[in-house]
Amino acid sequence: MSDAYYLHLTDRLRDLIQDPEAFEDDRLPSERVLAERFHTTRVTLRQALAQLEGEGRIHRSNRRGWFVSPPRLDYDPTRDAGFNDYVKAQGRRPRTEVLLTDIRPHRPAAEALGLPLDQPFHHIRRRRFVDDRAVLSESLWVVPERAPQLLEGDFTHSLWGQLRGRWGLTLAHRSLRLYSEAIREQEAEELGVAAGTAGLCVRRTILDEQRRPVEYDEEHWLHNALCIAVELENSV
Amino acid sequence: MSDAYYLHLTDRLRDLIQDPEAFEDDRLPSERVLAERFHTTRVTLRQALAQLEGEGRIHRSNRRGWFVSPPRLDYDPTRDAGFNDYVKAQGRRPRTEVLLTDIRPHRPAAEALGLPLDQPFHHIRRRRFVDDRAVLSESLWVVPERAPQLLEGDFTHSLWGQLRGRWGLTLAHRSLRLYSEAIREQEAEELGVAAGTAGLCVRRTILDEQRRPVEYDEEHWLHNALCIAVELENSV
DNA sequence: TAGTGGTCTAGACCACTCT
DNA sequence: GAGTGGTCTAGACCACTAC
Asked: Which distant-in-sequence residues (6+ apart) come within 8 Å of A217 by Cβ?
């Protein structure tokens, strides 16, 4: 159908990328070098790079350059395997940074959990890395009554694990919403990418066995960093 | 942080779009007209449009123009509500076109279902519309032993419903994989968009109660057409 | 300070859609 | 045939990173 030169370029770059020995550090040569090598302009070359970025094969770190993307991480948002656990289980290196903890109301959380809009929450914001690449920025809002003294804990590990272990909560009713998005300024900065980069947003609302509101969270992932994988038994 | 002109343009266009009376047909003025109106070039203007496209606010129909995108469709891939049903339930108008039915082996289906690579499947390919916009291209591969004479049926309606109703199958074990992608040539053509457009791919593998392979399918959605919404009870 | 990607200009021609 | 988006050229300057 289309024989645009940038699509041809895309194919050739894709081949290049698939050779694991092609570049050091998984870093691509600069746009100017590539443009010259392929006898075209930076604009056209960048169209090809953008295409590969959409395919999830390469990504950029703001103004540092283009890099070959590692395989996607498998992630099951319906389970609480704990980020550190499932990243390690896939042979990757996890890291978590807690950016902020405080207590404050949050309208979307209140709405999702069916609480008054001025309801204060325990709020935790963190950034998570796979092999030293920041791939996820997330915020969690926990109903204080369900987990008093929560904020005195350590949040570099699984929150759900703590809710179960320290407060005996069962996270019985889970509602998930998941959609593609353009990453906003704040999250983009935290992830070291340009605002508007393609992302995947996962929002969860959790109630316990008595349908009491427990937690609401929002995850912003780099779109090419993950593959959502869910296993379900019975009940259609 | 950034005060690029195209981001300012993005803001102004976003405002314009949010006025439901701004354009007829939800169609934006042409790129040349907009570029002139905002005293810039088409290149810069297109950056702003691409931004809004990433946000899911507008979309293009190949060479026809830019359009304001309708709200996303809520979709639960773990259930078989039937496309027609859940689209109607959200006040939208569904339509399904069957593009192809045949019998043939398919390697990804065979691998996912744990069958020999030369295993033939009943194959159905269809395209689905919401309010006359093609939003989904999908292929389904069904194990013939589970549903003989399947291909004599009508596929403009729910396949899972038929598997349950006509063959008494329970779709007990469902494995889902879900990731962002760039839409490939064939699907792009079927959806009337440019190859490389952002998409969301949903792949499902279904076994029955005795863990016998039943079905494998692949859905390619326009990324801004849907919001995955899943409700889960118990068992973490 | 050199090099990178990010942004932008002012054009051009082409393939396709619409009527 | 007129108008649309799709592709492309050949430059330029800027903000930021890495050294």
From this structure: A138, A139, A140, A141, A203, A204
A4 touches chain B (CB under 8 A): no
Taking an 8 Å cut-off on Cβ atoms, the answer to whether B231 and A1 are in contact is: no
Asked if residue A133 and residue A42 are part of one domain, the reply reads: no
* Residues of chain A (173-232) having a beta carbon less than 7 angstroms from strand C: 194
| Domain final residue pick, B52, B68, B84 | B68
pLDDT in tens, A96-141: 999 999 999 999 999 999 999 999 999 999 999 999 899 999 999 9
The rounded distance, in Å, linking the Cα atoms of B143 and B122 is 6
Reported confidence tier of residue A235, pLDDT bands at 50, 70, 90: low
Residue A151 lies in a domain: yes
The total domain count for chain B is 2
Alpha carbon distances (Å) from A143 to A19, A125, A155, A209, A212:
49, 15, 16, 15, 10
Structure tokens at B20: 């439901």
B173 in the same domain as B118: yes
Question: Per-residue pLDDT tens for B114-138?
Answer: 999 999 999 999 999 999 899 999 9
Q: In 3-state terms, what secondary structure has residue A129? A: strand
Q: Does B21 touch chain A (CB under 8 A)?
A: no
Chain B contact for A186, CB < 8 A?
no
CB B102 within 8 A of CB B123: yes
Give the whole-angstrom CA distance, residue B103 versus residue B124: 9
Those nucleotides of strand D lying less than 7 Å from any protein Cβ are 3-12, 15-18
- Polymer length of chain B: 236
